[in-house]
Design brief:
2% strand; two-stranded parallel sheet; single chain; 8 helices; 199 residues; mainly alpha; globular; 71% helix
């Protein structure tokens, strides 16, 4: 079940056109999903190196990176069972569209980066939930198994943003909610796990 707070956190559901694309391009879906798990681990590790003086952040992100890499291994194993060769695919524009609005000076840069992380995790959770009813039993079961961890990652990123900001972040969250909605509703010519609406 999709946590109700994610439905209110995100300003729009995944468009049905994207779901139809995903069902037609399941090979690309899985390859790009594997890429997303690696990128999520890399983001967590990069933040650990950048903000080494914050022990709470180090602890949370270390656990998160390990979990994301475990998810990558699970996707890679599922691809192998299905005879899907792992090959390079270009990245979606989604994260780039969000990160273009991250402030460049501290502490705003850290806070915005954590808020963006929360939106990426929340959208991933929502997409797993929306896709699951249409998938074969193995893939549906796997995607449903990811809901809890993706929801927790969203909560962790948001909680860190609130903690390190030291001031209310509701206005900033609302700003990025609008950016995220626009990124999801913007048509994209290529299908990816985080691509926008079908062009």
């Amino acid at each position: 079940m999709l946590p109700p707070e994610i439905e209110t956190f995100l300003l729009c559901p995944t468009p049905q056109g994207w779901i139809e694309q995903a069902l037609q391009q399941q090979e690309i879906l899985l390859i790009d999903h594997a890429n997303c798990e690696k990128k999520a681990a890399s983001t967590a590790l990069n933040l650990m190196f950048r903000y080494i003086e914050r022990p709470d952040l180090q602890h949370k992100l270390s656990r998160l990176a390990r979990e994301e890499l475990r998810h990558f291994e699970q996707v890679a194993a599922l691809m192998k069972r299905r005879g899907i060769a792992y090959r390079p695919v270009s990245a979606a524009l989604y994260a780039q569209r969000l990160r273009a609005h991250v402030r460049t000076s501290e502490p705003g840069k850290l806070i915005d980066t954590l808020i963006v992380g929360a939106f990426i995790e929340a959208r991933s959770c929502e997409r797993f939930f929306r896709l699951a009813p249409y998938l074969d039993d193995e893939l549906a079961k796997f995607y449903r198994s990811l809901l809890k961890s993706e929801s927790r990652h969203y909560q962790d990123y948001l909680a860190m943003a609130e903690k390190f900001a030291g001031v209310p972040i509701a206005e900033r969250v609302a700003f990025f909610a609008g950016v995220e909605r626009d990124a999801i509703l913007t048509p994209d010519s290529e299908f990816r796990f985080h691509s926008g609406a079908a062009a």
